[in-house]
Design a protein that fits this description.
The protein is α+β, with helices and mostly antiparallel strands and about 170 residues long. It is about 35% helix and about 25% strand. The strands form two sheets. Strands 4-3-5-6-7 form a five-stranded mixed beta sheet, with helices on both faces. It is globular. The termini are far apart.
Length: about 170
């Protein structure tokens, strides 16, 4: 067995331990899964409004490279601390069906005081469609009936994230 003569191998690679106890370089999937676990841990219990970068980083990794649309909800306590991130609907390359009744049921099940709506655009274009705008208003109205505030709707398109709140679309 040859020894590694250069410590640069360890400086540039992340290592994982296999079931036999040996270390090997991590593959890309293992690195992404580890990053998601770290970001999810940072996201849970954080102050959403004071930590938007953690939310954006999490969403970029979680949804930014998917080849199909996903609609998710980030449930929040009254103090805007994260309860949970829930992927609710999966669609095709260009669309997903979202059912307001199911979003309201999920918000009530989590006892959410507020939510952040999230979906991705696999096309890489973050601009909201007219359907995205109508859906946002429909969900905002439905959730308001049960005293759940919609703080934002984020569209993830690769590395770009568009905020409806920042655009004045909420």
């Amino acid at each position: 067995m040859s020894q590694l003569s250069s410590s640069s191998f360890f400086d540039s690679s992340l290592l994982v331990r296999d079931v036999a106890g040996s270390y090997r370089p991590a593959d890309a999937g293992e690195v992404l899964q580890a990053a998601l676990r770290v970001l999810a841990g940072q996201l849970r219990g954080t102050q959403m409004l004071s930590s938007p970068q953690v939310v954006r980083d999490f969403l970029r990794i979680k949804l930014g490279t998917l080849e199909h649309e996903v609609f998710a909800v980030i449930h929040l306590y009254a103090q805007n601390r994260v309860i949970e991130y829930v992927e609710m609907f999966r669609g095709t390359v260009t669309q997903t069906s979202v059912y307001p009744r199911e979003v309201v049921k999920e918000a009530l099940a989590h006892n959410s005081a507020a939510v952040i709506l999230v979906h991705n655009h696999p096309s890489g274009v973050a601009e909201p469609s007219r359907a995205d705008e109508v859906l946002t208003q429909t969900l905002k109205s439905a959730l308001a009936l049960v005293d759940v505030r919609v703080l934002d709707h984020l569209i993830v398109a690769g590395a770009n994230i568009l905020s409806f709140a920042e655009r004045g679309l909420l």
